Amino acid sequence: MPDLRVSGLTKRFGATPVLDDVSFSVGKGQFVTLLGPSGCGKTTTLLSIAGLETPEGGSISCGQVRFFDAAAKIQLPAESRNVGIVFQTYAIWPHMTVADNVGFPLRIRRRSRAEIRSRVEEVLDLVELGGYGGRYPYQLSGGQQQRVALARALAHPPDLLLLDEPFSNLDAKLRERARVWFRALQRTLNLTTVFVTHDQDEALSMSDRILVMDAGRIAQQGTPEEVYRLPATAFVADFVGQCNLVEAVVRRVGDGTLVAGGAGVEFSVALDPSRFAVGARVTLAIRPEDVHLESPAGRNGEVNRFPARLASTSFFGDHFRSEVLVGDLRLAVLSRSRPAGAPIAVEIDPGTISVLGPPVSRSGG
Amino acid sequence: MTATNLATASVGRVRVAARPRAARVSQAAVWVVAVGLVVFPLAPIVYSSFLSKPFYLPGSTFTLDAYATLFADPAYWRAAGNSLVFASLMTAIAVPTGTAFAVLCHRTDMPLASWYGRLLLAPIVIPPLGLIVGWFVLYGDGGYLTQIVHRALHLPPWQLSSIPGMAVLGAAVATPIAYVTCRAALEGRDTALEEAASSLGAGPMSVLLSITVPMLRPAILNCAVLIFALGLEVLGIPLLLGGPSNIDMYASYLYKAWTSGFTPDPPSVSAGALILLLAVTTLLLVRAALLGSERRFGGVGARGGRPARRLTLGRWRHPVAIAGGAYIAMTSLVPLLGLVVMSLVTELTILVPPWHLATAGNWVQVLTDPRFQRSILDSVVIGLAGAGLTVILVALATLIANRSDFPLRTLLGPALVYPRAVPGIVLGIGFFWGFLFVDLPGGALRNSLVGELIALSVRSSTLAYVVIYPAVVRINVELDRAARASGAGWWTTVRLVLLPMLRPALVAAFVLMFVAMVSDYDPVVFLQKPGTEVMGVTMLHLWTKGVVGSVAALAVVQLAIVAVVISAAWRTLGRALHA
Fold this sequence. Notes:
The structure holds two protein chains of two kinds.
Chain A: E1 2-13, E2 16-27, E3 31-35, H1 42-50, E4 57-62, E5 65-69, E6 74-75, E7 83-86, H2 98-108, H3 113-126, H4 142-155, E8 160-164, H5 172-189, E9 193-197, H6 200-206, E10 209-214, E11 217-222, H7 224-229, H8 234-239, E12 244-253, E13 257-262, E14 265-270, E15 281-286, E16 291-294, E17 305-315, E18 320-326, E19 329-335, E20 344-348, E21 354-356, H9 360-363
Parallel strand pairs in A: 3-9, 3-10, 7-8, 8-9
Antiparallel strand pairs in A: 1-2, 1-4, 4-5, 5-6, 10-11, 12-13, 12-15, 13-14, 15-21, 16-20, 17-18, 17-20, 18-19
Helix pairs in contact in A: 2-3, 2-4, 3-4
Chain B: H1 3-8, H2 11-17, H3 19-49, H4 65-72, H5 74-107, H6 113-120, H7 122-125, H8 128-139, H9 144-153, H10 163-187, H11 192-199, H12 204-215, H13 217-232, H14 236-241, H15 250-260, H16 267-298, H17 317-343, H18 361-368, H19 370-403, H20 412-421, H21 424-437, H22 449-474, H23 477-485, H24 490-501, H25 503-519, H26 535-544, H27 548-578
């Protein structure tokens, strides 16, 4: 049974839709990520769940509690929703000590001093800040501040944890560690969590499920692997990971394969060909790491093997990123070793190419 | 929130969910008080200016007679003309002076620049009546320095009581406004703009003249409009200095028409006040538009983190510093000295050395006469209570305007800015009418300090707003969102999170308001009754009787109160900022 259910959220700013029929649900203890570029509506969705933004249409409920229902004119105020939220800026109150910050939700709920003290200690231990209760926020590092914000969100055990890019202000090394640490904690506490980020690495490595948002809509939802391997739209393919997008036309459909040509190159793709008609315009999505560089000699004429020229190569430490030209088609390629100079050949496994674009059923009209 | 909403919430949430409605009601209460206090004095002016007689007299009809009477009076046109000349001269002197100081203090290597920068702000906190008295005893037509220069150099004496003479004094008071505006424009600017010109081969002087000063144009225009508007409403200068030459300006004309007219409370004064209000409002709307365009230009480029490279003045360094220092000394420091000396002598004249005329009489009178003691006490009480209450009201109103979803919140900002745009004397007339309209039993507002407190508080509330508003905007919205998500309602968030974070701004706003209210007088000249005078009004009364020495002593008391409060606040604020 889903713990959080969001359905049909809409909101516009003037003529521009900010949220356009956003619907999803999150199961108990699940970690769901809203991923998208800035302005895609992910933070607005999160704030709507928290009650800090008011959508114009749709409904939000958590467990048995209706948070928001436009039709029934229900808008439960933010302070009554019992959600924990960690903001991008952490939003730790500078005039309060760490213990006062963390104890705030309990103080609001009129808990006894003793109860507040013991709970604050417990939560600070949980986020590995035991003994820091007396400090002021300015005496803490960025990573510690982030954990104070998390402790405050957890202090009065929330029904729902909301995270708005909480790792984006940490430096790269710390961010990596914080992700792993936080995901383990979230699993231990079995917290239903909605996470907002524009960082695809974060989304892919942490989530049970990813919702990719674009211009106020959910472009695709699925597990990290599904979203990465089988992107539903060119936007998703391009935003989640890097991708070569090739405009093509379906030339032939055959036994479990489809051949599509674009920019003078014909690619074979392994998939259920009945979904596409000959002549249909499609976009082929090819991940740079699925393009293999080969020496030009050898098994020429094999499937998806093309002679190519090397245009440029950049070094990124653990990999090389090159641009190659197959005829007029420019492809990005990732490789472990530095590609030998021109001429070369590229080879692409037909199973790794995604076909985006109008399947038969929809393109008929 | 609606009842259905509560029904759907689980039992534990109902108590919490009841809060928003209470919050909405109390927000509405703050809104009504804040907006009401601005509308309250202005509406009666409009109304009474279209009546044939004061509204409390029977048989009053709607008519334009008040305007006809006003326009038929040649003295009105003379006063209006004088005000225009005065305001123009004052602007023409203050703006170049303030701009020059801003450039000299912040873009050149003039010695003592940072000290000059601080001293230039002094006229903002010096009680204006004290400064006028100081000028009068030194530079007045029979003033000490006037006589010295006249006798020693055989030059014809200058006339402080002439319009140009008064404009020089007005300019000295207004120079800080030009200085502060231009300084802000200089500090907010990316110094790379000037460095780019240097790197293209421009010498320091041509950078100054071709980049720095031209780029100040929006700021110069903006402060010129403000200073001109202030010049139109000046009351104290013509009232105290214009006497000998019988020169009236707009505000002093209204004051005299009101206090010495044949009919009491003449509608023509309301008409005149309304015209002044419209003129000043129009000017300040023009200024607001200019301010918008200045921001557009100012926003280009990153804010300069580095201090600007300063222009080397070379052999002009010391002469310029001496000239600047002389200006500051002659306009504010020496007059204050003159004020203190005046309070200790029976008369200040070059014919007899001051120590032969020394007397403690002025001080004895000020410190022992119960009327003066009460006037001092009243001023302090009004200042403390008014500043305290206003700061709380303005803080809440600012938070409602910027940090709530109260439906009419956008009206609050303009309502808090507008009082300062209303000429003090106009506000005074408005409150006079307003208090008559809502005639509380026993004239509780008309005949007590409470009415004066309200008028002075409303007049200075803008000062609190200009300090508190930027501080509110600087607080990241996520800080209050975090409190809401933690379970705090709107008022709890305000009380536990926002107000504590605003504490330094609240203290600063309190001090600024207190200083302004202790020194202010023009909104209450029509409200005071015997027994409820504040210091400024007492000084005006004494002045008309020609008792200069006691006025000087009272002005020194005013100055001392201001100095004590500012230095105390300085220390408190310093501590608050450390914590």
